[in-house]
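Step 1: inspect the first sequence and its C-alpha cells.
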Amino acid sequence: MANLNINRSVTDVFYRYKMPRLIAKVEGKGNGIKTVIVNMSEIAKALSRPPTYPTKYFGCELGAQTQLDAKNDRFIVNGSHESNRLQDLLDGFIRKFVLCPECENPETNLIVKKSSISQRCIACGHVANIDMRHKLTTFILKNPPEPETTQGTEASSAVAAVAAATPGKRVKRGKGSKEQENGNGDGNTDRQTSNESNHSSKRGSKSKDEDDDDDWGEDTSEAAVQARMEQLSGAAKTMTISEDLEKTEQERIDIFYSFVKQKKMADCIVGTEKEKELVGEAERLEVKDKAPLVLAELLYDANMLQQIKTYRSLFVRFENEKAQRYLLGGFELLVGNVHPDALMPKVAHILKEFYELDILEEEILLDWDKKASKKFVSKEVSKEIHTKAAPFIKWLNEADEESSGEEEEEDGVEVVYSNSEAPGVKAVAKTPNNKPAVNGVANKEEEADDLNIDDI
C-alpha cells in the first residue's frame, strides 16, 4: 500500500513525513449503511494523534454520527463515503490540528487546558492556539490526548537526526529527551550531565560509559552525517518554497531575476536541461508570463539582433500570448532606455528576426502595432519605436495579402472569354512575378511599390 505525504501540498517524493493512504469500506445497506475506516489506527499513529480525533472530525464535517471503538480498533462514520472524499477531509484535519502554522511541520503536540487547546511544534518551538470555533475542539477538551500519544515517533527520529548531525552532542531518545528540555530529569540525567562535563575537561581520555554510548549512538561518520543532512534539507526546501509563494509578485520576480543572473554568470543558460530549469523556476514562483521581460533584460544587450538566435529555444518555451507581450515590453525597454543608439535603427530587423524564428506570432505583432503604449517606456519613445517598426509591419501586412491572393488563384488555368476563340478553359503561362500572361503575352507591370524588408 503506497504511502502519502502527510502534508499533501508538498510534492517532494523524498518528503520524510508519510502516512498510509486511507482505506474505507462500506458495509450494510439502507438506513444501516456505514463506512468503516480500516486503517485509522495506522494513520493516527503517523499523525501522532488519537484515532478518535480524525474520525470525529469526519463526523463533524459530514454531519454524520460516528462510532469510536478503540478497544476493538473499529472506527465508523455512518453513511456511504468514498475513500477519496475522506482523504480530502483528512487534509483539513491535518491542516487545522497537526501542521505547525509557522513551519508547516507535523511534529506537533497538543496541549489541552481547561477551555483552550494549543499546539507546540517540536521542530521550531512555535506555540499557537487552535481555532476553538470547530466542533471537534469540544470533543478534544472532553477527551484530551494521553501522554504516550502526544509524543510522535517522527518527532523522535527528527531529534535523533539533528543530534547525530552535530558531533560531540548526544540526545537520549524517548521520555528522557523531554525531561532534559525541561531540566527535570532523574538521576540518570544528572549522571549524563556530569559525564559530559568530565569529558569536556579531559579531551584525551575515554571512560567506560563513553564506550557504552558508542554502542547505541548514531553513526557520526562524515558520509552518514552528510546523508542525514540531505534528508533534512528536503524539508527546509519545502519551507522555502512555501515562503516564496506567500511573497508579493514583485518580490517573486526579483527572486527570479537573481536566479537567472546567477545562471548567466555560471554560463548555465543554453541547453535543454538548463532551459527547463529556468522555466521550472518561473513556474514555481508563478511568474511564467512575466519571465520573458526579465530574460530579455539579462540576456540581450547592444548585440540583440545576433543574440535572438542564440536564445531562441529558451524564449519559445514561453509561448503563450501574455509572455509574448511581455517580451515585446522587454524589447521596448532595451531599445528605448538601455541601448537606444545601437538598437533604435535596427528595430525593424529585430522584429523580423523574432517573427521568422517563431518567437513572436504575427497576430501579436500586428496587435502591438495598433497602439503606442507607455507601459514600459515613455509615450514619445514608444511612438518612435513604432515609427521605426513601420517598414516591417507594412511588409508583414503585404506578405499576408499576397499569401491570401495566391490561395484564391488557380495555378495555370484561365477561363477564356473571347469572340475569336472557342469558349472553355485554357492553360496560361506564368511570368516570374506569378502573374498570368494574357493570350500568351506576359504582363510587365512594374513592381515599384513592393517593399523588400532586407533593404531597410
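Step 2: inspect the second sequence and its C-alpha cells, then contrast the two.
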Amino acid sequence: MFRQVLAYVGEERPDALVIAGDIYDRAVPGVEAVRLFDDFLTDLAGENVTVIIISGNHDSPERTSFASRLLADKKLFLYGRFDGTVHKVSLPDEYGEVHFWLLPFIKPLSVRPFFAGREPESYGEALSAVLENAGIDHAERNVLVSHQYYTKAGVRAERSESELDPVGGLDAIDSGPVERFDYVALGHLHGAQSAGAPHVRYAGSPLKYSFSECLHEKSASLIAIKEKGDLEIRTLPFKPLQDMRIIKGKLENLLREAASGPADPGDYVRAILLDEEEIVDPMGKLRGAYPNIMSLDFENSRTGIDVGTIFANEETAEELSPYRLFRQFFLETQGSAMSAEQEEIVQEIFQIGEEE
C-alpha cells in the first residue's frame, strides 16, 4: 500500500501529503509496524513533498510528536499531543499561500486546561473553543487537518465495526463550524465519505480492517486548490495485495468456487455455510481451499432457533435429569432425536461427570 502511495506521489507531484491521524492501531505499536512506517517516511523524504501528520485516537500523542521540531526542517510536520494551539503550516504556490491548520484528536478534558473559565463540556464546545482561539483569516485559503467524528444533521455516516464507538455518540461534532475552511481533511472513519459538505471529507483507511468494510472502495483523496473557491477533488484507488470478502453457500459449492472461480482464493475470507447436515472439520476443509480464511459462521434451520426459550419453565427443567435435559435440548436444536450411538456417548459423559 505504501508503494502505491509513493507511486501516486511520483505521478501527481503534490505539494503536500496529509495523514489525518491513526498512524497505528494502538498506542504502543509493534516493532514491525514502526519500522515499516519509518521506511515509508524515509522514501517520501526523497520525493521533495511536504508531509503533514497528526495523531488520532488510536495513536500515542507523545510518540507521534517525537523529534517533531527537528523533522520540520526536513519538511515533515508532526503534531501529536494538543498543546493549546492549532499549529499552522503554510505552503506557497502561484496564487499565494495555503495554510494548513493541524488539530490532532482532542477530548473536552484535554482542552479545558488551556481555556480557564470556559471549560468546554462537549466535543463540539471543545472544537469551537480551539478554533476561535486560533485567529484564522477565512479570507485566505485554509485547510483544516482534523481527527474527530464530524456529522451533519440528516446525513448518516458510514461506520465500521473496527472503529471505536462511544455510547450514545458522545464524540459527535456538528460539521457546520468547519465548513468555512476551503478543505477539511478528516481522519477517524474508515470509509471514504463527506461529512455533509463535499469539501469536508474523510479519505478513509487505505486497507480494509473488518468484514464490515468489504464493500468499501479504498482510495487516497487528491485535492487541487487554486484560487479562493476553486477546488477540485479526485480519488486515487488503492488495490490491496489480498482483498477482504464474505463468501456464502454450501461447503461443496464454496470449495468448487475456490478452484475455478474468478476471485483470488488467497483473499481474507469470512465464510457463511448454509449446509443443514453436520460437517466434520468445516474450517479445516475451507482452509485447504482458502488459506487466509479468518472466520466461519453458519446459517441454517438450527441457527435460527432461540434456545433461550426451550427451558423457560423452570419447574419442568428442575424435574428433568441432566441427561433428559440434554436430550430435549438436542431434539430442539437439531430437529431430530439422538441416535443410539449418540445416546450411549452422552450417557457415558454424564456418568464420568457424576463420578468425578
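Step 3: confirm your contrast with the notes below.
The two ends are 56 Å apart (CA to CA). The chain has a mean pLDDT of 88.
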